[in-house]
Amino acid sequence: MIAEAVEGDVQPQQLLRRAHRGVQLQRDLGGIGALIGGRLCDKLGRKKIYQWDMLIYAAGMLLLIFAVKPWMIVAGFLVVGLAVGADIPASWTIIAEMAPTGHRGKHSGVAQVLWYLGPAVVLLASLALSGQGVLGARIIFAHLLVIALLLWAFRLKMRESSVWTTAKSVAIEHDPDAPKIDQSEVDVAMSHGRYRELFTRGHLKSLLFLVGMYGIRNLWAGTNGFFGPYILRTIGSQTQATSLALSAGGFLVGVASIYFAFMRYSDQVNQRTMLAIAFAGQITGMALMAIFPLTLPVVLGYLLLTAAFGGFAAQQFFQLWSGELFPTLVRSSAQGLMFAVVRIGLGIWSFFVPVLITVGFKPLAWILTSFLVISGVIGVAFAPRNEGKSLEEIQLERYGATRPRVMPNPVISPSPAINPSPAA
Questions:
Q1: Other Cβ atoms closer than 10 A to 393
Q2: Burial 129-152 (b: 16+ CB within 10 A, else e)
Q3: C-alpha to C-alpha distance for 202 and 370, rounded to whole angstroms
């Protein structure tokens, strides 16, 4: 997608076909990387995966920067996709476990801001380098390489999650110096870290809820994110520069929404109500595209509504709740599994988007609107009320166990622990 964005002479159908192949590869590899990385985080620790996957990402970027053969491009995207996927459960779990009680939403929001800024910067850089061809793509890849190396150096200073080390020593290593808790408390509050625990009744319900809400919403978001510039350029009669600028502007509006809404209020107010308001705004925005002709004012209204209400919607609450609804020793595994299902599902759906566009954009717009409606119904119906609660309190409420005597999580600043990968 980056390479295509900086090539101003690519024909629309060529753009769609090439973008489709690149998107499919990145989505599937990101899902596989999350599946593997999530499990390794629970087995080996959050810090190891969170720290060293940046070097793997950097190696992939080097291949892309100096690629002179097709196999080098494929290998580069293979390595980058796996590294990006592995970074997701590592970073999200660290945020959930290290954020002070009553501030998890705020800390999660910082990661979401960076998540939104990444595509915005790349789109704006692509716009500035339009016409430079392959050189423009290499420049963008090079800046991502520099960011990856800086993040790797920064993450060297971070500490391992005390929540994970305590849970591991109690439930697996049986450290005699660990806090003394009985077997039932290990079962309920921390688990034994076995993968099959995710498929027990309580955890399976959480998996299905989060995958249903986020996965269906991601069918809408993924289609917009990767095919949006093409759709605006070909169906909406906008130039490529205009479509890229509008897409980048949408991400920047989303950043403002995350900061002023999600980060400020998700730890204080009813999270179900916030989610309902967000879905209502996004459904209204998407419906504009389905009902009215694709003129610039309609596109602007769509972008403003979906971006302004998207900063405290399914994406943000999926990150927050996926770190709260599972015990410590399977927390990253659950996140990796869910992200893999969502990513691969989106990859399968992307096969059908070019066919739907040939039938007509309006049917596609109505389908995307229905995705938001279905996702919203699932999210609002089953949303938990976790605002202001500690991880231990959430586990107690969900499973009704006696409070485990574990070491408290230190209150620390979010600095080194909440820097997601530059491509996240």
A1: 14
A2: bbebeeebbbbbbeebbebbeebb
A3: 28
Neighbours of 299 (CB within 10 A): 22
The answer to the question of residue 34 being in a domain is yes
Give 355's contacts (C-beta < 8 A, 6+ positions apart). none
Which secondary-structure segment (H or E) carries 89? helix 70-98
Task: Say which CATH number the domain at 195 has.
Answer: 1.20.1250.20
pLDDT at 140: 87
The confidence score (pLDDT) of residue 177 equals 52
Q: Which helix or strand (DSSP H or E) is residue 307 part of?
A: helix 296-310
The tally of domains found in the chain comes to 1
**Residue 405 to residue 186: CA distance in whole angstroms:** 10
Q: Are 122 and 116 in contact (CB under 8 A)?
A: no
Structural tokens at position 264: 């400020």
Task: Copy the structure tokens of residue 412.
Answer: 């620390």
The pLDDT of residue 342 = 95
- 């231990």: which residue's tokens? 392
Cα distance between residue 336 and residue 386, in whole Å: 21
The answer to whether residue 394 sits within a structural domain is yes
How wide is the angle at C-alpha 67 spanned by C-alphas 63 and 73, nearest 5°? Answer: 75
Interacting residues of 80 by C-beta distance below 8 A, sequence separation 6+: 26, 29, 57, 60, 61, 64, 423
CA distance 294 to 291: 9
Report the largest interatomic distance among the alpha carbons of the chain, rounded to a whole angstrom: 69
pLDDT along the chain (424 residues), means of 10: 42 44 66 95 94 94 91 89 94 94 94 87 76 81 93 91 86 52 44 88 94 96 70 62 77 94 96 98 95 86 93 96 94 96 88 77 89 98 93 79 42 42 41
Q: Among 162, 127, 379, 360, which residue's Cα sits nearest to residue 277? A: 379
Cα–Cα nearest to 44, from 140, 164, 135, 128? 164
**Is the residue at 216 inside a domain?**
yes
pLDDT of residue 238: 62
* In-domain check, residue 17: yes
- Give the pLDDT of residue 167: 85
How many helices and strands (H and E) does the chain possess? 18, 0
Q: Tokens 């049986």 map to which residue?
A: 174
Q: Which residue, 91, 110, 373, 87, is CA-closest to 266?
A: 110
Domain of 273 in residue numbering reads as 2-407
